[in-house]
Design goal:
The chain is α/β, with parallel strands linked by helices. It is built from 18 helices and 19 strands. The strands form 3 sheets. The protein has a 10-stranded mixed β-sheet, with helices on both faces. A 7-stranded parallel β-sheet has the order 1-9-7-6-5-3-4. The radius of gyration is 26 Å and the shape is elongated.
């Protein structure tokens, strides 16, 4: 999905947010007219005049469609209009818009689609909350299989505005024109796959009203955190740039923690150490070069390592087993004054032990990085969209949550979130999550604010995935971080 607008930030709203925004306008029909006219203006500027079929629903989205139809006709477009649904039930602002339409309405089955060169989908918009019926599915499938491009008004019909789920069927749209804000359904899979390009049109809603939307959800882009990056200064040394510690896994699972350690250093840590059980130290000594290895025989020696005063951040979880011994290590790490990343095994070992985890996290500067399966193991009753789950988890755990997936959500207990849209499909490979944990740990050691370190880390990881593309393996990501970092550094000079 490509967002056409050039903007520092993109607010993401749900259905209720959108309704509240529209209700803040005293003259709702005036707002509908403005939206329809601006949509028509954008269509006219982006596409050449051609024979166009506008499919209008029986609600507010249909009202937008009626206005668009008349506006484009006034501009010299060859417009055909049809109503999908029972015209008799149209009421309110949609009826006002219909009454202003001077074009003849045709039955869909009577229209010769062979000559149609563009479709405009104004059937449902954000209002859909049920599966579309068989007749509607047939119509949408018909235009989807046609060679002509489709423009969706607000959101492709069939996509749930709140969670991106497909309610029966949804067409693939060349362009989606939405108003005031992005919607969750634009960003979340599988709905986002139905959108090629999207444009957010300003219809005059006050920014003060939009900025008050709760929860505060935005797209994760560099404008959110680039000013928070602590770039190396000319007089920095390895300790002033940050000291990260990665807690190693068992002898059979050393690869994950090695990936995390290398990634932490690539992301900016001046020095990285790995805390290894004595039996695994030889593997780490042989395989790690610019990272220190600190081995321990027992929990006392382990505690001495993690409490070293110079250490700024600790990454624990990659390669960690899920036994009680690991829980003890995690609790000990959280008792330090270090900044903590809990990943993989450090999450799974708290299955059915939520109370222990909440207590251990209380008052700590920590980030937890589960995928959906790991989150479900500790919070099995969470419901709602990916964004909703991440926000609820952050509130319950009172910590920053990075909910990993094709779309990744960074959520804070303060009811704010950043969404990293899907796009780096080759990152779904073994070790990729360990790399992300290490990157975030490295940024934390460099004294970047926790929420922004999580967001920046997710973005770096995603951009590296896009850059490398087909065939990447986890080891490739830290090797190529320098290329992504250079691009960001240039924009910040």
């Amino acid at each position: 999905m490509n967002i056409i607008n050039k903007s520092d930030s993109y607010i993401i709203a749900n259905k209720q947010n959108t309704i509240n925004i529209e209700n803040s306008c005293k003259d709702s029909f005036n707002l509908m007219e403005k939206a329809g006219k601006l949509a028509a203006k954008n269509i006219d500027s982006l596409y050449t005049k051609r024979k166009t079929l506008i499919l209008c629903g029986i609600g507010g989205n249909g009202g937008d469609g009626f206005i668009i139809a008349q506006e484009l006709a006034n501009k010299g477009w060859d417009i055909v209009t049809t109503i999908v649904g029972d015209q008799k039930v149209i009421k309110g602002d949609a009826l006002k818009a219909l009454n202003k339409l001077k074009l003849k309405l045709l039955n869909f089955n009577d229209i010769n689609l062979d000559k149609t060169k563009l479709f405009i989908d104004a059937i449902y918009g954000i209002g859909l909350s049920r599966k579309i019926n068989k007749k509607e599915c047939i119509i949408l499938n018909t235009i989807n299989n046609h060679t002509a491009p489709i423009i969706a008004i607000d959101i492709p019909s069939g996509v749930d505005c709140n969670n991106g789920q497909i309610l029966g069927f949804a067409p693939f749209c060349d362009l989606t024109i939405t108003f005031s804000t992005l919607k969750a359904g634009h960003i979340l899979l599988p709905g986002s796959e139905k959108i090629n390009k999207i444009k957010v049109v300003d219809i005059g809603i006050s920014k003060d009203i939009i900025n008050k939307i709760e929860p505060n959800i935005k797209i994760n882009n560099k404008n959110q955190w680039v000013k928070e990056i602590n770039w190396p200064k000319i007089d920095d040394h390895k300790y002033s740039r940050g000291y990260s510690l990665v807690v190693g896994g068992s002898k059979k699972m050393t690869g994950a923690s090695r990936l995390a350690a290398i990634s932490a250093q690539r992301a900016g840590s001046g020095i990285v150490a790995l805390a290894s059980e004595k039996e695994a130290e030889e593997i780490y000594f042989i395989s790690l070069t610019s990272q220190l290895v600190k081995s321990y025989k027992n929990i006392k020696e382990y505690n001495a390592i993690i409490n070293e005063s110079r250490i700024d951040s600790i990454v624990i979880g990659p390669g960690l087993d899920t036994g009680n011994k690991s829980i003890l290590k995690i609790k000990s790490a959280l008792k330090t004054n270090k900044r903590i990343v809990l990943d993989a095994g450090a999450i799974s070992c708290f299955k059915d032990k939520l109370g222990i985890l909440i207590k251990a996290l209380s008052g700590k500067d920590a980030i937890i990085t589960p995928h959906e399966g790991e989150l479900k193991s500790i919070l099995p009753n969470l419901s709602g969209s990916l964004i909703s789950k991440a926000l609820k988890a952050a509130k319950i755990l009172d910590t920053i949550v990075v909910l990993k997936g094709a779309t990744t959500v960074i959520a804070s207990p303060n009811n704010e979130a950043l969404v990293n849209p899907a796009g780096a499909k080759w990152l779904s490979t073994a070790g990729s999550g360990d790399v992300l944990a290490g990157i975030i740990g490295g940024l934390l050691s460099n004294k970047m604010k926790t929420y922004y370190a999580a967001a920046y880390g997710v973005w770096l990881h995603s951009e590296a995935g896009k850059y490398l593309g087909a065939g990447l393996i986890a080891e490739d990501i830290p090797k190529n971080l320098t290329k992504i970092l250079k691009k960001i550094e240039k924009t910040n000079i």
